[in-house]
Amino acid sequence: MEFEYNETHQMIKKSVREFAEKELAPESAHYDEVQETPVHWMKKMAEMGLTGMAIPTELGGAGLDYISYSIAIEEISRIDASAGVMLGVNNGLACEPLYKWGTEEQKKRYLTKVASGEWVGAYALTEPGAGSDAAALTSTAELKGGEWHLNGSKIFVTNGYMAKLLITYARTDPGTGPKGISAFIVPDSSPGYQRVKKENKLGIRASDTELIAFDDCRIPEDHLLGTRGEGFKIAMATLDVGRIGIASQALGIAQAAMEAAIKYSKERKAFGGPISNLQAIQFKLADMATQIDAARLLTHRACWMKDQGIKHTTESSMAKLFASEACKRIVDQALQIHGGYGFVKDYPVERYFRDQKITELYEGTSEIQRLVIARSLLRGS
Ligand SMILES: Cc1cc2nc3c(=O)[nH]c(=O)nc-3n(C[C@H](O)[C@H](O)[C@H](O)COP(=O)(O)OP(=O)(O)OC[C@H]3O[C@@H](n4cnc5c(N)ncnc54)[C@H](O)[C@@H]3O)c2cc1C
């Protein structure tokens, strides 16, 4: 067993950190405040090779491993969690299913564009009446005259404003549960594709979250992804990878909060010296560092399993569950260390506190991660 990062990992950490500090940090508070999507960030991140990190170079990606991917998402999220999820969705939820289930033609036509960042990709599973219980989705897809006709609506679509392509899920065989769901590639230029509404959010405000409706939306027959009825399996397997991204996002927010707390505790004076001299503050910092290390190890174990081709559903859930809840404790204590100044927008810890919450909700709430882990335990695997 080795606990060392290789030269590529170290190089990625350094170069992505420098990139995020130079290109994203100066604009981060602004885009949070105005709640606008910095589309130019996505272009810059594409130029850095961050939009299809684990996709082979001949398909437009960077040909790297998932540990590299996790390091990059952590470093981007350390500066801006919205940028972290923009990338997480593009890589994990759009490129991954196209790579794993796409035909050669679909990969050539679409994966190359999304992996290279020429197009932004998104993943639309959730519906107004189907979130945790995704198999209850009611959007439909009917094959008529060589075209799929999609009807229904998808809520909370990350990257929904920017996306040129959605991977979406609809019922092709009504009444047959998860087995009646199929996956589809839907370009935003398809007739009947509608961007309906942008959500007004508590955190990750620079990341766009849209409601998208399919009003008799028509796509060619060959835009089915995988086989008919395989959609639910594709959606769930995709989340195994997506959850690595969210765990990495939580790590980035937690790391930023800890660094802010260390800096502030050395500057702030009370009772005749910096508050970092107080054991109560030191213990909080020690707990933060320990939890971040544990979360990073869990996350990189799930990445390693993915790279080895080992099933990692449970390990991805553990990483996401632990990293997101550790992040909650860390941002809370980092804010506490800032005292009243932590509650105002002059210090970035206020944003970390708001941005953290989503990591416990999307790509499966913490309750759903616990269900996944418990089911695997009870199955004896
Ligand atoms: C900012 C944002 C971005 C998002 N991006 C995307 C995206 O890009 N694509 C996409 O498809 N979706 C996306 N989502 C949707 C997200 O994944 C869902 O919100 C999430 O899965 C929870 O579903 P829900 O909101 O319907 O909550 P519900 O499923 O209604 O859950 C409500 C509560 O009940 C609990 N609960 C539900 N079932 C169980 C159970 N069996 N056992 C125990 N507790 C349970 C939940 O944990 C939760 O606490 C996004 C959401 C947000 C807010």
Characterization of this structure:
The mean pLDDT is 97. This protein folds into 3 domains: 7-119, Orthogonal Bundle (Butyryl-Coa Dehydrogenase, subunit A, domain 1); 122-232, Beta Barrel (Butyryl-CoA Dehydrogenase, subunit A, domain 2); 233-379, Butyryl-CoA Dehydrogenase, subunit A, domain 3, CATH 1.20.140.10. It has 381 residues and is of the alpha+beta class. The two termini are 22 Å apart. Helix 6 (231-267) runs antiparallel to helix 9. The radius of gyration is 21 Å and the shape is globular. It has helices at 7-34, 39-47, 66-79, 81-101, 104-116, 231-267, 279-308, 313-337, 349-356, 366-379; strands at residues 121-124, 140-144, 147-158, 165-171, 181-187, 193-198, 209-220, 224-225, 269-270, 273-274. The chain binds flavin-adenine dinucleotide. Flavin-adenine dinucleotide is lined by residues 89, 123-126, 131-132, 156-158, 201, 209, 358, 361-365, 367-368, 371. Residues 89, 123-126, 131-132, 156-158, 201, 209, 358, 361-365, 367-368, 371 line the site of flavin-adenine dinucleotide.
Summarize the topology:
Elements: H1 7-34, H2 39-47, H3 66-79, H4 81-101, H5 104-116, E1 121-124, E2 140-144, E3 147-158, E4 165-171, E5 181-187, E6 193-198, E7 209-220, E8 224-225, H6 231-267, E9 269-270, E10 273-274, H7 279-308, H8 313-337, H9 349-356, H10 366-379
Helix pairs in contact: 1-3, 3-4, 3-6, 4-5, 4-6, 6-7, 6-8, 6-9, 7-8, 8-9, 8-10
The chain binds flavin-adenine dinucleotide.
The site of flavin-adenine dinucleotide has 21 residues, from strand 1, strand 3 and helix 10.
